[in-house]
User: Fold this.
Amino acid sequence: MAPSPTGSPHVGLARTALYNWAFARHHQRHGAGGTFVFRIEDTDKERNTEESYESLIDLMQWLGLTWDEGVVVGGPYGPYRQSERSEIYADVLARLHESSYTYDCYCTTDEVTARRKAAGSKVMGYDGFCRELTDEQVASFRAEGREPVVRFRMPDGEVTFTDLVRGDITFQTEHVPDYALARANGDPLYTLTAPVDDATMRITHVLRGEDLLSSTPRQIALFEAFKAIGLAEETPQYGHLPYVMGQGNKKLSKRDPEAHMELYREQGFLPEGLLNYLALLGWAIAADRDVFTLDEMVDAFDLADVNPNPARFDLKKAEAINASQMRLLPLDEITERCLPFLARAGVLNPTDLPDRQLLDQAMPLVGERINKLTEVVDMLAFLFVDEADFVRTDDIDDAGREVVGAAYDALSAIAHWSTAEIDEALRKALVEERGLKPRHAFGPVRIAATGRKISPPLFESLELLGRDRSLARLRDAMAT
Assistant:
C-alpha cells in the first residue's frame, strides 16, 4: 500500500487488500500454504508522512485484515517499508547496469515531445534516443550539467501473460517504451521498487487494481532481467481487479466523499459490514446471497469467480449490508462497539457505573433498530443528558400539548412505575377515552420525553427515564 496524501485510504485500496487477504487465507485453509504480506510503498516523499503511514496500519487493524509478514510484525525479507530499502534498490540498479539492461537517459521531456511531433509519431512515451549514446554525446550532456535518469531497455517482440482475473493478455513491446527506474537524483521509482520487492520477498501472486494493468508488461520484462542477474527465480502471477465506479459510471475518484474509508468508520459502519460490501464489488459468494461472514468468504473465495467488469459503489446497498451484519452480532458486542461513539459525543462516560448500567438496560430497546453504530447516540442521548441540557429537536403543536397534558395526568396516578403500568395508563387515557390512534396518542408524548419523533419503544423508555424525569419533561412540554 502507498500512503494517501489525504490521510484516508480509498475504498478500492481496501477492496484490493481484502481480496489479497482472502486469497492467502483460502490457500492456507486448504493446505496450499499462503502468506499475506503487507508492505508500505513510501518512496514518494510528497505522499510519505508518518501520519499517513499510521493511518494505513490503523485501517488494516480496524478491518481485521491481519497479515503474516510485513510492517509491525516483521518477517524474513524485511524491512517492509520501501523508504528503508534504498541500499537494496541501489544494488539492483548497479547489477542491471553492469548487464546492460539499463542505460542513462539525458533527454528532457520537452526534447522528447519535440522529436515525437517532428516525426509525426503517435506513440506516447520515450523514443529510445539515448539507447546507444557515444562517449562524446555523454560528455557533451555532462558538460551541460545534465543528470541522467535510468531507463530499462524493453525487449523487442511481445509480452504475454495469463491474468488471474482476465485471462491471456498480450502486449506488443513496440507500444511499451523504455521506462525510467530512477530519478536523476538517484531516487528509485515505483517501477523499480515494487518489482524488486516482489523478487526479493519471493512474492508469488500480486492482486492489484486494473489501473496498473498497463505496467505489467514492463514488470514481466524486468523480471526476465532479474532472473538473468540472479535476483529472482520466478515471475509472480498477476491479477488485475475491476475498477470501483462512482456516480455517473465514472471511476470512483479520491475527490468523491464516498471513496474515503475513514468516512465509513466515523459514520459507524462495522468493519464486517464494510468488508462484506467491498467483497461484492467484483465477487459474489452465491447468486442469491449477499450477506456472509469473512470466514465464509475465505472458504469460498476463488479468483476464477472475480468479475473483470467495473463494479459500481452503491451507498444504500452498503448501508443495507451493514445493517444485516449488525443483526448477526450479539447484543453485548453491539453495546461494546457503541461505547466509543457515545463517549465521543459526550453522551456518557463509559467508566461511570450508573451510566453503564443504564446503557445495558437500554440497549435491548435499540439493538435491533440501529443500522450504524452512530445511530445509538441520537436514540439514547435522552436518557443520559442533564435536564438543564435536554433539548427537543422536534416540535409539539397545541393539539399535541393537550395530549401530553392528558398523559401527564394518567402517569401521575400510577402506583408502580413499570412498563406494563405505563402502557396500560396511556392506552386507557389516550386511546380508549380520547379515541386517538396510537400514532397521534403516543407521538407527542414521545417528543416530550425523548425530544425526538423517533426513539426506542415509548413505554420502556419512560420506565428507564424514571418517574420524576418523565413527569418533569411532560410538564415542561405542556408549558412551552
